[in-house]
Specification:
single chain, alpha/beta, TIM Barrel, eight-stranded parallel β-barrel, 11 strands
Length: 229
């Protein structure tokens, strides 16, 4: 199905390829649940450099890995210690993957900043990660608390993206519809890197790589890796 496009990929130089990251693991694979070890492992087995995952805060202060504000009908922010025990904790992911994958740690809510920084110090993560959020206040709090943090601002609207320069981040993470060659160059000129999401089309993957993006986040981890094999 992708034979013609893949033939052109084989002629591309293999240097300076973008980071290949799974979205919530290998989200397109129906055999595994997103934001789980099985999904993370599958993304890595497919050949990804790492993966993005989501973190929320329970009422009792647990940093749980999940995307939606409700899980099994339970509001995560109201959950107590004996609820949602089947969810991964942030520290579980760092413990198992910090030495073998690039981690894009998305904070969905405020209040996680201290916990994340403590966990990064505990597992001695100095590179190969970014702590990202749609919330500028979360990103700025991280930067205030740590001069070494690798932070990223996520954007899905033009107005939101327009303010990326005001936040001193290492990573700008716009939705793929907002990315063009000029933006990539501007981000690089500012000394930052650009990751884009969620890219599930092979033509777009190749175009973004040509423009010099630093990472591509995709649901379809098999297609992503095959495109740059």
């Amino acid at each position: 199905m992708h034979t013609a496009a893949q033939s052109s990929v084989e002629l591309r130089p293999v240097s300076d390829l973008p980071l290949l990251l799974g979205h919530r693991g290998a989200r397109a694979s129906t055999s595994v649940l997103e934001n789980t070890p099985a999904s993370f492992d599958l993304a890595l087995e497919h050949g990804c450099d790492g993966f993005e995952f989501d973190v929320r805060l329970t009422r009792c202060g647990r940093s749980v890995v999940c995307h939606d504000p409700k899980v099994d009908g339970i509001t995560v922010s109201n959950a107590t210690a004996d609820q949602l025990l089947h969810l991964l904790l942030l520290e579980n992911v760092l413990q198992h993957y910090c030495q073998r994958a690039f981690l894009d740690i998305e904070l969905k809510v405020p209040g996680l900043e201290s916990k994340v920084l403590d966990s990064l110090r505990e597992y001695r993560m100095e590179e190969d990660y970014v702590v990202s959020s749609f919330l500028p206040e979360v990103v700025m709090e991280l930067k205030t608390r740590s001069a070494k943090i690798q932070a990223g601002i996520i954007c899905d609207k033009p107005g939101q993206l327009a303010g990326w320069r005001e936040i001193n981040v290492e990573y700008v993470i716009p939705h793929h519809s907002l990315v063009n060659r000029k933006l990539v160059q501007e981000v690089h000129n500012a000394g930052s890197k650009l990751l884009t999401w969620t890219v599930n089309d092979q033509g777009a993957m190749l175009r973004f790589a040509e423009w010099g993006v630093d990472g591509i986040i995709s649901d379809d981890t098999e297609l992503l890796v095959q495109t740059f094999a």
